[in-house]
Amino acid sequence: xxxxxxxxxxxxxxxxxxxxxxxxxxxxxxxxxxxxxxxxxxxxxxxxxxxxxxxxxxxxxxxxxxxxxxxxxxxxxxxxxxxxxxxxx
Length: 89
Fold this sequence. Notes:
The chain has a domain at 2-48. Helix content is 90%, strand content 0%. The protein has helices at residues 2-31, 35-48, 50-85.
């Protein structure tokens, strides 16, 4: 159980580091400074605009999940229609 908990915590930490690294690369590309100072600047900007970041990332994730659900429903409807019609694929 302890091993599973530590794995979960490390995986969460890895996701956070990857997210911050992505933002640091963006800041490096924009300003042309080193990765560490750009990472600090990116983290500071994220912290100062925390509600905006949560709203934009949340809405984006919700939109992607909704699109996936819509595709699932369309495929399921087509499959049920083919099964109901008795067609052999």
